[in-house]
Amino acid sequence: MTAASPNTVDPAEVAKFEAMAAEWWDPNGKFRPLHLMNPCRLDYITRQIAAEFGRDLTSEAPFAGLRLLDIGCGGGLLAEPMARLGATVVGADAAPRNIPVAQLHAEQSGLQIDYRHTTAEALAAAGEQFDVVLNMEVVEHVASPLDYLTACRQLLKPGGLMVCSTLNRNAKSFMMAIVGAEWVMRWLPKGTHDWAKFITPDELYGLLRQAGLDPVDRQGMVFNPLGWSWSLSPRDLSVNYVTTSVKRA
Amino acid sequence: MKTDTDVLIAGGGLNGPALALALAGAGLTVTVVDAQPARARADAAFDGRAYALAIASKRLLEAVGLWSGLADKVQPMTAVKASDGRPGEGPSPFFLDFQSAELEEGPVGYMLEDRHLYAAFLEAMQANPRITHIPATSVIAQEPLAAGIAVILSDGQTLTARLLVGADGRRSGVAERAGITRSGWGYGQTALVAAIAHERPHGGVAQQFFMPSGPLAILPLTGNRSSIVWSEADEAAKTIAALDDAAFLEVLRPRFGDFLGAISLCGPRFMYPLNLTLANAYTAPRIALIGDAAHGVHPIAGQGLNLGLRDVAALAEVLAEAKRRGEDIGAADVLERYQQWRRFDSTTLALGMDSVNRLFSNDNPLLRAGRDLGMGVVQAIPALRRGFMRQAAGLSAGPFGKLPRLLAGRPL
C-alpha cells in the first residue's frame, strides 16, 4: 500500500463479492451461510448495543437516536434489522452492485436506509461520526487491517461502540472455513476467503488497541451441525468469533 | 411497506387466540379473524365439550395470564388409569396406573370445559389493546407480497400483515390457498363425545379403557361429572348416535362399568369422525400453520389442543426473538426455524398416537395378550412409566432438546 492510495480495499476481493450481489436476499441461495449465521450475529450485536447505551430490546424502536454504520453492508442483512430497531443507518459497501440491490430491498421493506458506495476510509476523511460501527466479516478481506481499524476508530463518536467479527487462523479454521465451507459444502465460492488473512483473537485485540480502541468483549460463534444453526460461545473462539470495543470518551 | 398489523391470524378457536395473546405480550400487533360469531360469555350453559390440558398447556395459559381466572373452574387429574377390556368382561388384570405423585409436579393434567376456556380467551383478547378481534368474518383470499401479505376478508376489506397464520382447522383454507397439500387417512372410527353425571365421586382419576372397537376415555369434570370420548367403528357409531338418550346409556353402561355408580347424560352428545391429516409443509411464503391446520390428529389422550399449544409456544418464541433482533418476522428464514422446531415433534406424536390406536383397537387374542403384557411391563418399571407420563404431559423437550419457554412457564 502506498501513501497515494488511502483505500485499503483489495480490488480482487471486491470483484468476487460483486458477482454474488443479486443473491443476497435468498435464504437458500448462495448467501445461505450468512442467513444461517445472521440470528447469532444479531443476538450479539443487539445485546452489546443495548448494554452499552442502556436500551430495552423489548421496547418499541429501542435503538432510536443512535447513528449506526454497517461497513460491508452487502444486501443489507444487518442494516435492515438495525433500521427496524429504530437506528439511523448508513450502509457502506465497496462493491457498487450491492448498493442498488440493498436500496431496492429496503424500499420493499418500508425502511429508510442511507446506502452508499464508499469505504470506511472515505467516510472517515469526510468527518462522518457514528454511535455504532458494525464491522462484520470485513477485516479478513482488507489489505491493511491496522489502517482499516484506525479509520473505523475515527468514525466513532467518543463513547461509541464497534462490533468486529472475523475468522481465527489455525488448523481447525482452515478445515472448517476453507476445506469445509468452500471445498466440501460449497457454501461459499472457492477463494472467498484467504486463510492467511485470518486473524487470531489476540492479534485482533492487539490491532484494536493499536488503532486506539478499547476491546471489552469477545465470543465465539459456533456452528452446530445437528440443529443446523449457530450459537454464541464464550469459550470456543477457534473458528468464527466476534468482538466489541469502545472508543473511550 | 407499512402493514395494517404485524400478524393476521385466520381462526379464532383456541390456538388462534392463544397465539394472539402470546404475540401481543411480545409487543406485536395482532388481528384475529374468526369465521365463527363471538360466542356467548362465561354465563353460557355447559355444552358438553371439555379439554384435557397437559401440564405444559397449563403453563402456557399461566404465561399469557389466563390461568388465575380459570383455576377455580378446572378439575385436576390426579391419576390416569389405562386398561384393556371387553364389554361385560371388565378391565384386564394388567393395567397402567399413572399417579401424579410420580411426576412431582402436582396433577397429571387438568380438565376444563370449553365454555370457560373460550370465554377466558375472548375476554383477554378484547381487553388487549394490541389485539383486534374480527368475529363472524373469514379470510377469502390471500396474496404474498415482497415484504408482507395482503388478505381479503368476507366483509370486503383488505388487510396487510407481515405474516398470516393459519389456525383455521383441519380443512385449513389458508393452507389450501397457499398450495400446501395434505397427507392422511381416516380410521374408520367415529368418536362419540358426551358429558356424564354419576353417583360416586371420580376422585380426579381419568380412565382409558382400550376396547376392541376403539378406546373409551372417561375424563373427570368438576363435581360428579365426567366427559367421555368413546370411539367406535363408523357404522356402529352412527347407529349409537341415532339412539335416544336412554338407549344410548344402555349401550354405554356395560362399557363404562359400574365403578362410579349409576350414570346419566348431562349435556348434548357430539360425534366426530376420526382421521389423521398432516399438512405437508407448515410454512409457505409469509404463511405459518398451527394446530389442526398443521396436524389434525386422532384425539386419543386429548393431545389435539396440547399439540396445538406447543405450536403456539414455538411460533410465539421464534417471532418474539425475531422481533427483538430486528428481523422481518414473516421472512422465509424466520418461518423455517418454526417449521424445523415443530414438524418432527408433531409428526412423530401424530404417528405415535396412530399406532397406539391401531394396536389397541383390535380383538386379535395374540395382540391382546401382547399389550396386556406390555402394559404390565410398563407398569412394573417406574422410569418407563414416568417417561410416558412426561411425554404425555408435554414436559419433555422435543427432538432438538429445546422446550419452548412458554411451555416451561417462562415469559418470552
Automatic annotation (TrEMBL), chain A:
Q: Which reaction does it catalyse?
A: a 3-(all-trans-polyprenyl)benzene-1,2-diol + S-adenosyl-L-methionine = a 2-methoxy-6-(all-trans-polyprenyl)phenol + S-adenosyl-L-homocysteine + H(+); a 3-demethylubiquinol + S-adenosyl-L-methionine = a ubiquinol + S-adenosyl-L-homocysteine + H(+)
Record carries keyword Methyltransferase: yes
| Any single Pfam family the record assigns to this protein | Methyltransf_23
According to the lineage, what is the superkingdom? Bacteria
Which BP terms does GO give this entry?
methylation
- Record-listed S-adenosyl-L-methionine binding positions: R41, G72, D93, M136
List, alphabetically, the InterPro entries matched: SAM-dependent_MTases_sf, UbiG_MeTrfase
Q: List the EC numbers from the record.
A: 2.1.1.222, 2.1.1.64
Function, please? Answer: O-methyltransferase that catalyzes the 2 O-methylation steps in the ubiquinone biosynthetic pathway.
Protein name stated in the entry: Ubiquinone biosynthesis O-methyltransferase
Annotated organism of origin: Frigidibacter albus
From TrEMBL, chain B:
InterPro entries recorded for this chain?
Answer: FAD-bd (IPR002938), FAD/NAD-bd_sf (IPR036188), Ubi_Hdrlase_CS (IPR018168), UbiH/COQ6 (IPR010971), UbiH/COQ6_monooxygenase (IPR051205)
Q: In which pathway does it act?
A: Cofactor biosynthesis; ubiquinone biosynthesis
Q: Where is the FAD-binding domain?
A: 4-342
Q: Name one GO molecular function term.
A: FAD binding
Biological process GO terms, please? ubiquinone biosynthetic process
Pfam families listed in its UniProt record: FAD_binding_3
| Cofactor section | FAD
- Keywords in alphabetical order, please: FAD, Flavoprotein, Monooxygenase, Oxidoreductase
Report whether Flavoprotein shows up as a keyword of the record: yes
GO cellular component labels: ubiquinone biosynthesis complex
The reply on keyword Mitochondrion is no
Q: Which family does it belong to?
A: Belongs to the UbiH/COQ6 family.
Q: Which NCBIfam families match?
A: Ubi-OHases (TIGR01988)
The protein, known as: 2-octaprenyl-6-methoxyphenyl hydroxylase
Species the sequence originates in: Frigidibacter albus
